[in-house]
Design goal:
The complex is a heterodimer. In chain A, strand 5, helix 5 and strand 6 form a beta-alpha-beta unit. The longest helix of chain A has 23 residues. Chain A has 5 domains: 119 residues, no CATH class; 67 residues, no CATH class; 55 residues, no CATH class; 29 residues; 194 residues, Uracil-DNA glycosylase-like domain (Uracil-DNA Glycosylase, subunit E, 3-Layer(aba) Sandwich), CATH 3.40.470. By secondary structure, chain A is an alpha/beta fold. Chain A is built from 17 helices and 15 strands. In chain A, helix 2 crosses helix 4, helix 4 crosses helix 5 and helix 12 packs across helix 17. In chain B, strand 5, helix 4 and strand 6 form a beta-alpha-beta unit. Among the domains of chain B are: 201 residues, TIM Barrel (Alpha-Beta Barrel); 87 residues, no CATH class. Chain B has 15 helices and 10 strands. The two termini of chain B are 38 Å apart. Classes of the chains: A alpha/beta, B alpha/beta. The interface between A and B is large, with 90 and 98 residues.
Chain lengths: 490, 413
């Protein structure tokens, strides 16, 4: 029987050195023991010889060091030998850890989980108390972990409370942070922590007030905050009284008749009503046809004429000057347009902008809108898939487009895609038949039909894309030619 | 009125905040104070520092800045027409409570909400001021969740996002009609617009891999919302439909479901009854199935009756019992998607099955070691030494796999 000496109850480095040597010497796990400083090593114990110089490095899968580091923190007296046995078995079966149903692997998963949980609970349940010392404020906590997790968990506190001076005292190990370094020391006793702290009364008030007596679920609480931790949690003294009184206070809330509102509320309600009346007066309660484009935009915000409003974020109305000489009409807003409330700002908008720039057209002087003003889509997990609006939706929304056209009276309307063209003309047409021609709409306004920029984006091959982009740019050049007043200033 | 002490204010303003279910402190960017020598860290997973006897985690200092409110939302304890006691924290008081609680390791950070005073912008401005003070003056690196006030200006939302880890706006109710009815001053369209704006901002600040310079942090833990369950007549299908819409439209990290709970001085317009906790629980399970298990909403809802989930069994089991022709599933061959549909298998059990079966053919014993309850799983799987035979299709299956005793929550009152 060989025995390796370890410095403290979670001495991972010591274990690792000894395990390497033992493995190189071919010592089977049954013949290997570990003794923590202060423990008696046993009658037949032989000290472990040092690591032979020509030792081959042991095989260690990537996830093992992390696992072993946690295993040696477990309270199990057999933990060091068990970790060594896993390492030993890994030399024979390199993929052992992937076999989640192997009894040693199952045990290691359970031990690792217990340690991780205890370390997590330490992060959660340590409660510092503050004292004034000559060097300044010092925060001291007393905690009783169930495993040897002080070394494992201390760095967390150092990262979190870097700007404080603190100590965590536990029965077996203690740790101190002076603002720069962690120092570990032997265990301490409970009476070394400060007796009280002024903030605890506030914390207890908070704990009692945040509890909802109508939702008592004691088991759920205990699953996460087991009783074994309670005696070091100041708030735990409230648990029993809160549970005892919960049902009565919940019933009281249900039984108590509602009171009449206060005067303050009546005054507020009056103010709210006034505000609503003023606001609605401004738009005539939407009972009349809008006189200008701003009024139309305001009214369109509330449009529920077809069901598309419901899943969408907002109405995306047209943007641009009320006397724009050109109206560009797209199909409908997309994902980005729906979120921002502005037309043509997503990927298709980028293609559109590029074409306008290439043709020397100033977008800010044009009015840009869509045939349908709400985004139509189907949800697919985290994405929204664009759906083409149907004839009914287009017809209903045409009311807004007609209104925009009437209020703006442009010289030219540019229909981007077949939906837009159909909406402007009031009948279905094909792009092939109508594209790039100036079509008379009435004596003041002409129509130019071209493709929708999204069509260019969807083309799979680059050559076709370049060809269509060029054709689209030419159409934008035609716009500039027919309406020279919207050319970009040189 | 006598001036309230800090303890009194804290009692009022935390009592007023407890109906908001969210207390998460997870999912934000990793940071700590080792360089700054300030206070605070966030390391991915949140920490629950205590649990109240309602089983809810206490992770953050969840308070209102004030419970004075000009709105009169029927379901809300702080509505203008209620006669609950009112209080208001000063900015310095909130900062002090946050810092002192944090230094004693009571909390992960602050979740600040507020009643609306004067107007949305004024309220939001004060809240942003608190977050700014914590970050810039006190070098605080802990978690901050700000409830954004619907209708606050885009500039304020933008500033809030630079200091907060998470922003949230409550959608409150499953349908616009119910919201307009019960919360007359709230505008559903305004809430959606704010959510849309937040999503755009969050995405704008998310670094693309190819970019070298890191953009400024903006609400790294994303946005969330809360829906009150049982205050209106909406069924579970409508509730999950709304959740699906919000996840898809605004990429919310979480939708919280909050069973409508009796409140002090509540309105006579609402059900004065115990909160539907089991319904809330089933909705969370259904939400999980939609997000992590590849279930569609209509599949989940079809497990129950008339648009409501089955309260007696969990939604995955309810679906499986109605779709028995899809079972048994062979644990040694089935792909991940199918394994995830087996009642009793969580994502971790499925990962372990897939890893282990590369090395050995799985028997029922192996499965028992990999999952929580083999009894629940058994009728739905085939293993090397196990086939359920007629068990999958027996009439008594539901009684056999359903939880034996009624759940704890039902026996309360």
């Amino acid at each position: 029987m060989f025995v390796a000496k370890l410095d403290h109850p979670a001495d991972f480095d010591g274990w690792r050195g000894a395990a390497r040597a033992a493995l190189a010497l071919g010592i089977a796990p049954e013949d290997m023991g570990f003794a923590v400083e202060g423990e008696v090593a046993g009658l037949f114990a032989e000290p472990l010889p040092p690591l032979p110089e020509d030792a081959r490095p042991a095989f260690v899968p990537k996830q093992f060091p992390d696992l072993a580091r946690k295993l040696v923190c477990h309270a199990d007296a057999d933990r060091f030998v068990f970790a060594y046995r896993l390492l030993w078995r890994l030399q024979i079966d390199k993929r052992l850890l992937e076999i989640a149903s192997d009894t040693d692997v199952v045990r290691s998963i359970e031990m690792e989980k217990a340690v991780r949980r205890d370390s997590h609970k330490m992060k959660a349940f340590v409660r510092f108390r503050e004292i004034e010392t000559e060097e300044g404020r010092h925060y001291i906590a007393w905690f009783e972990p169930f495993h040897h997790v002080v070394e494992l968990t201390a760095p967390f506190f150092a990262r979190r409370f870097a700007g404080m001076v603190w100590s965590i005292l536990t029965p077996l190990r203690s740790v101190h942070w002076d603002g720069a370094d962690l120092t570990f020391a032997p265990g301490a006793s409970q009476d070394q922590r400060p007796k009280d702290d002024d903030m605890e009364a506030l914390w207890l008030t908070y704990y009692a007030s945040i509890f909802n007596p109508a939702r008592l679920k004691v088991k759920a609480m205990q699953a996460e905050m087991p009783k074994k931790y309670w005696h070091n949690l100041p708030e735990a003294q409230l648990i029993q009284p809160l549970i005892r009184n919960a049902e009565a206070s919940a019933q009281r809330m249900i039984a108590t008749a509602p009171t009449l509102p206060s005067l303050r509320h009546e005054r507020q309600a009056e103010r709210n009503e006034m505000a609503t009346a003023v606001r609605e007066g401004a738009f005539g309660g939407f009972n009349k046809r809008p006189d200008d484009i701003d009024e139309a935009r305001e009214q369109a915000k509330h449009c529920k004429a077809c069901p598309l409003w419901e899943p969408a974020t907002q109405t995306v109305f047209g943007r641009g000057p009320s006397d724009a000489p050109v109206i560009f009409v797209g199909e409908q807003p997309g994902d980005q347009e729906d979120l921002a409330g502005e037309p043509f700002i997503g990927p298709a908008g980028k293609v559109f902008d590029q074409a306008l720039t290439a043709a020397g057209v100033d977008r800010t002087q044009a009015y840009v809108t869509n045939a349908v003003k709400h985004f139509k889509f189907v949800p697919r997990g985290k994405r929204r898939i664009h759906q083409k609006p149907n004839m009914g939706e287009m017809k209903i929304c045409r009311w807004w487009l007609e209104l925009e056209r009437e209020l703006i009276r442009p010289k030219l309307i540019v229909a981007l895609g077949a939906t837009a063209a159909a909406s402007v003309l009031g009948k279905a047409v094909t792009i092939r038949d109508t594209r790039s021609k100036l079509i008379d709409l009435d004596e003041d306004t002409k129509l130019l039909v071209t493709v929708h920029p999204a069509y260019i984006l969807r083309l799979p091959d680059r050559e076709a894309q370049a060809r269509e982009q060029a054709a689209f740019n030419e159409d934008m050049a035609r716009v500039r030619e027919y309406v020279p007043e919207i050319a970009l200033a040189a | 009125m006598a001036k309230l002490t800090l303890v009194e204010k804290l009692a009022i303003l935390s009592d007023a905040a407890k109906y908001d279910a969210s207390c998460a402190s997870s999912g934000t960017s990793k940071r700590d104070s080792s360089k700054s020598k300030g206070i605070g860290s966030t390391e991915g997973s949140g920490i629950c520092h205590a649990y109240a006897p309602d089983g809810r985690c206490i992770s953050l200092l969840k308070i209102l800045m004030t419970n004075f409110c000009i709105y009169d939302c029927v379901y809300c304890v702080n509505r203008s027409s209620s006669n609950v006691q009112r209080a208001r924290f000063t900015v310095e008081e909130v900062v002090k409570l946050t810092m002192e609680f944090y230094k004693r390791n009571y909390i992960e950070g602050l979740f600040l909400s507020s009643g609306i005073i004067r107007n949305s912008d004024h309220t939001m401005e004060e809240m942003v001021r608190i977050a700014r003070l914590l970050r810039l003056e006190h070098n605080f690196a802990g978690y901050i969740h700000l409830k954004t006030i619907p209708g606050a200006s885009p500039q304020l939302l933008e500033e809030a996002g630079l200091f907060a880890d998470r922003l949230s706006i409550n959608i409150e109710l499953p349908t616009d009609i119910a919201l307009e009815d019960l919360a007359p001053e709230k505008k559903p369209a305004e809430i959606r617009r704010s959510m849309g704006q937040l999503r755009l901002k969050i995405e704008e600040h998310t670094a693309e891999k190819k970019e070298r310079a890191k953009p400024k942090r903006f609400a790294p833990a994303g946005q969330s919302t809360q829906m009150i369950i049982g205050a209106d007549a909406a069924n579970d299908d409508a509730i999950l439909g709304r959740a699906e819409n919000l996840y898809g439209n605004y990429r919310l990290r979480r939708v919280y479901y909050s069973a409508f709970s009796p409140i002090p001085d509540s309105s006579s317009r609402l059900p004065l009854a115990k909160p539907p906790l089991m319904r809330e629980h089933r909705l969370y399970q259904a939400d999980w199935l939609m997000r992590f298990y590849g279930f569609e909403r209509d599949e989940i809802v079809s497990g129950g009756e008339e648009g409501m989930l089955d309260l007696a069994v969990d939604p995955k089991l309810a679906w499986a019992l109605k779709n028995r022709e899809r079972f048994p599933v062979d644990v040694n061959r089935a792909d991940r998607e199918l394994l995830l549909r087996v009642p009793g298998f969580g994502t971790r059990a499925v990962d372990r099955i897939i890893s282990t079966r590369r090395h050995r053919t799985l028997r029922l014993d192996d499965i028992a070691r990999l999952c929580q309850s083999i009894d629940k799983v058994r009728p739905f799987i085939v293993a090397l030494d196990w086939s359920p035979g007629g068990l999958t299709d027996t009439e008594g299956l539901r009684a056999r796999v359903a939880p034996k005793k009624p759940a704890e929550q039902l026996s309360l009152f």
